[in-house]
Amino acid sequence: MLVTHLSLTDYRNYARAEVALRPGANLFVGSNGQGKTNLVEALGYLSTLGSHRVSNDQALIRSSEQAAIIRARLQHDGREVLVEVQINRSEPNRGQVNRSAVKLREVPRYFSSVLFAPEDLALVRGDPSGRRRFLDQLLFARTPRLAGVATDYERVLRQRNTLLKSARSSGLKGAQLSTLDIWDDRLVVLGSELIAERDALVARLRPFVERAYLAVAGADHSPRLSSRLSILSPINGDDELAEVDEGASPSRWGSPFQRHEIETEFRVALARVRRQELERGVTLSGPHRDDILFQLNGLPAKGYASHGESWSFALALKLASADLLRTDSSSGDPVVILDDVFAELDQARRARLAAAVADYEQVLITAAVFGDVPADLTAHTVRIASGTIVDEPSDD
Fold first, then answer.
1. Model pTM score
2. Is 310 annotated among the ligand-binding residues?
3. What Pfam families does this protein map onto (predicted)?
4. Longest dimension (CA), the chain
5. Which residues in the chain land under pLDDT 70?
């Protein structure tokens, strides 16, 4: 898959931008704050319907404007498709494919990308929510139908939490108890599907992470990842999975959990924490509280890995995602996006990363300093200054 042209209107600091892109490596160079990351952020939005930098879409719209437009011309197997998203301040966002309106959630079906940025260090060192988001983005890219399952689960979760809050303030009555049982059934059915799919994805991803870590780190530190499921774990006072030692960890290094196992354990977990849930007015078990355990050399990467090891693990997760998508997808390679990554790496890791992405159909790179990027990735360079394309790649 290739992006042949990117067009932005009133997006971030761009009143308008038109950028032609080439197969292979495309490098965007500019001082910090000039707008180079905004270009790749826009493309990342098309494949995930979200930004890797902010959670609020309003920040993506140029100041004083009411809407921003991202439009990209894509090419795969000689066929072209025009994909567009309009991000609005005061009404729902809209999507188009080949100038025809589509449901917004359909847009990512047409474009696949994997973006790595310095913020992704939080995959290793940050909160579980970031790891869940990483896993879900990859899950939905491989199986778009599951985005609808996740949306339905979130709706049921909100309804159940509302009922729990009501019960906490007024006491649980007979009718409310019956209603809670109904929401429990829906929560288990939808949540078990998500848990099973995530767990299967973790198992599928393992060998790809092992290869990618060796490729970028140049050493085998036995990287491992496994599911940590809230339905099998005690809950601490902060409503997160309690810290446990490896021997007691609700993790699994072998085959994925089966769907019927998950449904059984989910129902047991809801019964076990029912009193706590009524006291707190919140659902304490389910995929919205799960985590992934990352390990290096038999120790949790979070808290034990060095800065360089953490960077290598985070990079390996994203490279493994790209490799998995290219292996399983019928739409060819995902577009690999490296946002301001090379400045954070030493010379050896830069070279190894360049080699790891060299054979992808298209790689987009941003950098503040041209010299930070290995020469093999600089053939097509676009220079950015103050929201303006000042130097596009030549035809040579």
1. 0.89
2. no
3. SMC_N
4. 76
5. 171-176, 234-255, 391-396
31 is in an annotated binding site: yes
C-alpha 153/C-alpha 162 separation (Å) is 14
32 labelled ligand-binding: yes
The two structure tokens encoding residue 343: 């400045």
Confidence at residue 40, expressed as pLDDT on a 0 to 100 scale: 94
Annotated binding residue at 33?
A: yes
DSSP alpha helices (H): ranges in the chain? Answer: 36-48, 122-125, 128-142, 145-170, 174-217, 259-272, 274-280, 301-304, 307-328, 347-357
Q: Which residues pair with 96 in a beta bridge?
A: 84, 101
The answer to whether the annotation marks 36 as part of a ligand binding site is: yes
β-strand partners of 100: 97
pLDDT for 326 equals 93
Q: Which CATH number fits domain 128-304: 3.30.420.40, 1.20.1050.90, 1.10.260.40, 3.40.50.970?
A: 1.20.1050.90
Which CATH entry fits the domain spanning 2-112+332-391: 3.40.50.720, 3.40.50.2000, 3.40.50.300, 2.40.110.10?
A: 3.40.50.300
- Asked if 367 contacts 343 with a C-beta cutoff of 8 angstroms, the reply is yes
